[in-house]
Write a sequence for this structure.
């Protein structure tokens, strides 16, 4: 959730220069589509936003807020909605129900979302405590894809209450129904297949009986033939499909195509080295995500940028960051770390799982010799650990200082006070930065990763390892003393919430890491007593930042220890893997992801990949090739064998995602900026459709179609540090142990 344009201020000059469109009361609704996707607030208020001085409350089925008094300008307090498409010469009707208590006059605007904030409609509704319906009409003078609806509520001496409901904006031509270009009906892994590995494809067809297919080489010769297997209607795509298994074709080749039902697939290779480059690129993704350091062009040609958030104007910097008002009276130097995603926020829970998966890749013997071309390359430490350290040091810096009542805890997150718009390079972000309250979840993420860091860094830097172990112990003690400090699910202005009302799984993960590092009884007893130790934790959706028990279980299964019942733990991984194997086997697109209710999650791609981590671990525990094959086959989905016929990894495959939501890889908005670097995973289909672009274009989508490669679709197309971590892990695993 990295939206959106910031609440915009309107300068006096701009105001004076504005020529208002003709304003007439409107009786009937203009013909044309409804342009506001959530004007009734029946299910929350996304994607509406408010200035940081407001707490938006939609729990009562309308959007209400207590407006602070004592502000100077109307635009000091705003409730807004972005991304409304306007067409020049078309007429529009704008309506809403609103109340003000005590009575007051507000401003309702439809305007350009950036300076000079040209207003196409400006109204002054007289609000009363009983509430009234308001209706206006205007003709748009411009073609604009992203107008803003803004209720300006500031400039009043006294506080008052504002409520809004039934917001509607109709008019303009019916937009053409969005039809993604899905190319040929034969869906393959567009990068390729391993010579000795599984080779599967999917054909979209109305045919209900088997069809012949051929594989054709670059010279046009048929090198393989066979028959498709009808699979019926696939609920995840709404398509009738056949699957194709051409695994007996083993000879390496480039530029192959698969031909079936009169369609020719996009080209692919058969090559033993398919995953080597991805294993590297997926990790090289992290250096240009770094905060607090210049990204140099010699290390990343085309991606050079100044250091972000180091305190050089206009940045306020992350070097002396205060808390949100009333949260603490100290400042912390929290510079460094990785930016979480396409926003400039840094979040301990999400940083935690990401750095854990990098260290886990190393601990499982993967990625150790990769040259990540980072400033530390060439030192005596493997690059993958140098990269992990950049984040781990940030996590340590988020600790409440000694002497404070909550010493040992970690602050949940640090980010901008208000959401910023796109594009915005990190060093140009002028928003004040704030620490948010400590949380149990963040503290346990710190405990887990610091315990792990104590193990992996010991051979390279004993002092750093010892510092981490001490921090892990202190964090564990502090979490036990404060076991229910949950991050506020409404604290989502300027950054994501990452709130999680159940931290029993984080307790289990942290205890597991502390036990594996120290072997101590207290941690062992906690592990053995946790319901997560024996429960079925292998959820269909996969593990993620909010579901971390699996991280503990996998490490207990794979790392040496004297844990009683360790064999049972190892067998439990096979049980989970068998569940995913069954899902993949039943899926005509071959991936281990079929969430309950057929609703895809935010970041579904990484949940597919995290399920591959479980399958890969099962392959190691059992030595059985069926698990390995499922890992390799699962990557086919990510790299093109999917309903949209797209590779979700930048730079991989003929047609790949490239406009992932990011404030600095914003080529789609400013051609002077680059696209994300090769090896960047897009979040992927998300049935929730929380952003306006997805809501406008994808409403009603079958799950696999709930994705659009648009930079403003932050709920389907963002990039994040926690999504690339399992991509790197799995690519590294296949490269090293795919064995085919
Ligand atoms: O990945 C997060 C997803 O699980 C949540 O459902 C979503 C809404 O809270 O937030 C996602 O995380 C975003 C975070 O809040 C802010 N930075 C970008 C993250 C990826 O979109």
């Amino acid at each position: 959730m990295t939206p959106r344009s910031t609440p915009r201020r309107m300068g006096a000059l701009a105001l004076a220069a504005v020529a208002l469109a003709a304003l007439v009361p409107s009786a009937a609704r203009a013909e044309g589509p409804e342009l506001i996707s959530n004007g009734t607030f029946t299910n929350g208020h996304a994607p509406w936003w408010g200035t940081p001085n407001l707490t938006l409350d939609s729990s009562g089925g309308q959007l209400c807020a207590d407006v602070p008094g004592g502000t100077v300008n109307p635009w000091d307090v705003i409730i807004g909605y972005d991304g409304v498409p306007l067409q020049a010469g078309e007429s529009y009707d704008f309506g809403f129900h609103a109340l003000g208590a005590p009575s007051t006059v507000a401003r309702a605007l439809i305007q350009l979302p950036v300076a000079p904030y040209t207003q196409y409609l400006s109204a002054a509704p007289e609000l009363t405590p009983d509430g009234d319906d308001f209706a206006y009409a205007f003709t748009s003078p411009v073609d604009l894809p992203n107008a803003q609806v803004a209720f300006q509520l500031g400039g009043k001496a006294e506080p008052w209450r504002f409520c809004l409901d039934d917001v509607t904006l109709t008019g303009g031509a019916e937009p053409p129904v969005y039809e993604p270009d899905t190319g040929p009906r034969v869906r393959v892994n567009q990068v390729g297949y391993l010579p000795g590995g599984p080779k599967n494809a999917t054909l979209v067809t109305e045919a209900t009986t088997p069809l012949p297919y051929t594989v054709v080489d670059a010279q046009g010769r048929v090198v393989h033939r066979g028959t498709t297997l009808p699979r019926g209607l696939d609920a995840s795509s709404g398509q009738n499909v056949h699957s194709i298994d051409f695994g007996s074709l083993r000879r390496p080749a480039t530029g192959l195509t698969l031909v079936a039902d009169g369609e020719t697939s996009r080209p692919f290779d058969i090559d033993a080295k398919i995953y080597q480059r991805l294993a590297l690129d997926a990790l090289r993704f992290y250096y240009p995500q770094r905060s607090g350091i210049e990204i140099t062009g010699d290390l990343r040609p085309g991606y050079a940028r100044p250091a972000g958030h180091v305190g050089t104007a206009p940045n306020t910097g992350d070097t002396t960051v205060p808390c949100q008002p009333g949260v603490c009276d100290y400042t912390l130097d929290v510079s460094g770390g990785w930016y979480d995603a396409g926003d400039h926020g840094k979040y301990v829970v999400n940083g935690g799982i990401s750095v854990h998966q990098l260290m886990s890749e190393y601990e499982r013997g993967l990625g150790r010799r990769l040259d990540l071309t980072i400033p530390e390359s060439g030192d005596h430490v493997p690059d993958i650990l140098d990269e992990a350290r950049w984040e781990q040091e940030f996590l340590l810096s988020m600790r409440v200082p000694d002497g404070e009542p909550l010493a040992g805890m970690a602050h949940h997150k640090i980010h901008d006070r208000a959401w910023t718009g796109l594009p915005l390079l990190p060093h140009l972000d002028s928003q004040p930065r704030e620490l948010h309250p400590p949380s149990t979840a963040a503290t346990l993420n710190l405990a887990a990763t610091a315990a792990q860091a104590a193990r992996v860094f010991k051979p390279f830097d004993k002092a750093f390892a010892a510092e981490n172990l001490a921090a892990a112990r202190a964090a564990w003690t502090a979490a036990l003393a404060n076991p229910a400090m949950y991050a506020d699910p409404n604290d989502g202005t300027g950054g994501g919430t990452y709130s999680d009302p159940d931290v029993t799984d984080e307790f289990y993960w942290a205890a597991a890491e502390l036990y594996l590092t120290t072997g101590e009884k207290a941690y062992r007893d906690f592990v053995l007593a946790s319901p997560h130790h024996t429960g079925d934790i292998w959820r269909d959706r996969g593990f993620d930042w909010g579901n971390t028990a699996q991280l503990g279980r996998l490490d207990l299964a794979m790392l040496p220890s004297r844990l009683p019942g360790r064999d049972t733990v190892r067998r439990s991984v096979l049980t989970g893997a068998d569940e995913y194997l069954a899902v993949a086997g039943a899926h005509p697109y071959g991936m281990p992801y079929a969430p309950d209710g057929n609703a895809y999650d935010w970041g579904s791609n990484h949940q597919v990949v995290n399920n591959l981590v479980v399958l890969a671990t099962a392959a190691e525990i059992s030595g059985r090739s069926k698990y390995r094959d499922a890992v390799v086959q699962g990557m086919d989905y990510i790299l093109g064998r999917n309903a949209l016929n797209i590779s979700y990894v930048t730079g991989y495959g003929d047609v790949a995602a490239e406009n992932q939501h990011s404030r600095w890889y914003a080529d789609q908005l400013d051609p002077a900026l680059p696209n994300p670097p090769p090896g960047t995973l897009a979040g992927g289909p998300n049935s929730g459709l929380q952003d306006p672009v997805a809501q406008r274009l994808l409403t009603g989508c079958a799950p696999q179609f709930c994705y659009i490669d648009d930079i403003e679709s932050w709920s389907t197309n963002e990039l994040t540090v926690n999504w690339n971590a399992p991509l790197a892990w799995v690519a590294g695993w296949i490269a090293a142990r795919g064995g085919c």
About this structure: The pocket of 9MR is lined by residues 1-2, 340-341, 343, 345, 496-498, 602-603, 714, 718, 720 (CB under 6 Å).
